[in-house]
Specification:
single chain, 231 residues, alpha+beta, Adenine-n6-DNA-methyltransferase TaqI, Chain A, domain 2, 5-stranded mixed β-sheet, 4-stranded antiparallel β-sheet
C-alpha cells in the first residue's frame, strides 16, 4: 500500500467532500490606480505564463500613467491564476514571492486559496488535470477569442481531502515536475515521456468520484514501490 492509500484510509473513511472552487478560495482585489502615485508594477498579461512550465516569464513594467485597460488585478504570493481567454490552452500559474503585489490582466481568474481548506499547489494541480480541462471545453464561450466566465471557473467542483492527504499528493506531483525540469537539457523523447508520466499520475491521484453519499472512489495505479521510486 502506498502512503497516499494509507492516508486516504485513515483520514477519509467516509469519502472525500467535493466543493466549488469559489467556496475554498477568495477573490483577488482590483488595484486602485488613483492611489498608487508613480509606483511601477510588473504586468502579467496572457502571454506571460508559459503553458508548459507554468512559470511567469516576460512581463512589462507599467504605472498608472501607461497601464493597459486590462491591467486591473493585484495579485499576491500564493494566488493561483487561470487564463479565462482561450481557456483550453490551460494557461495557469501560482504567483511566486517575486510577483507579490504585482498586476495581472483581467483575462485571468485570480483564486486566493483559503489555506485552512485547500493548499495552493493542490489547487494548481487540479486546474491542470483532465477533469478541469473537459469542464472548460464544455463551458467555454466560442468566438474569435473563446472564453470562460470567472463564475464558471469558481463553480467547478473539486475534491477537498484533508490537508495531510493534499500535501502528500502535492509532494508526489511536484517531484514529477522537478524531474521534468531536470530533463529539459536531455533527449526530447525522454522529456515527453516524463510529461506523459506526470499527466498520468496527476489524473490518477486526483480522480476522486463524487456521489450523493460522497463516497470515495480513488483509482490509483501507483503501487507502494512506484511511490518509493518517485520519492
Amino acid at each position: 500500500m502506498s502512503r497516499i492509500d494509507d492516508l486516504i484510509r485513515r483520514h477519509c473513511p467516509n469519502g472525500v467532500e467535493f466543493r466549488a472552487v469559489g467556496e475554498v478560495t477568495a477573490r483577488g482585489a482590483k488595484v486602485r490606480w488613483g492611489d498608487v502615485g508613480d509606483t511601477e508594477f510588473r504586468y502579467i498579461d496572457l502571454t506571460s505564463v508559459d503553458r508548459i512550465t507554468r512559470q511567469i516569464g516576460e512581463t512589462a513594467v507599467i504605472s498608472a500613467a501607461d497601464a493597459p485597460s486590462r491591467a486591473q488585478q493585484q495579485v499576491h504570493e500564493g494566488d493561483v491564476i487561470f487564463a479565462t481567454t482561450r481557456p483550453t490552452q490551460m494557461r495557469w500559474a501560482v504567483i511566486p514571492a517575486e510577483y507579490d503585489g504585482q498586476i495581472a490582466s483581467t483575462g485571468y481568474c485570480v483564486l486566493r486559496p483559503k489555506q485552512s481548506e485547500v493548499l495552493t499547489n493542490f489547487l494548481g494541480h487540479l486546474l491542470g488535470a483532465a477533469a478541469f480541462r473537459r469542464y472548460v471545453d464544455r463551458h467555454q464561450v466560442p468566438g474569435n477569442y473563446p472564453s470562460i466566465p470567472d463564475r464558471l471557473v469558481r463553480a467547478f467542483r473539486i475534491p477537498v481531502p484533508p490537508l495531510e492527504v493534499q500535501a502528500e499528493i502535492v509532494r508526489v506531483l511536484d517531484l514529477f515536475r522537478s524531474l521534468e525540469a531536470e530533463l529539459e537539457a536531455e533527449l526530447e523523447a525522454e522529456l515527453e515521456a516524463r510529461r506523459q508520466q506526470y499527466a498520468h499520475y496527476r489524473d490518477a491521484l486526483l480522480s476522486f468520484s463524487e456521489s450523493d453519499s460522497l463516497s470515495l472512489s480513488l483509482s490509483l495505479s501507483l503501487s507502494a514501490r512506484q511511490v518509493d521510486d518517485v520519492g
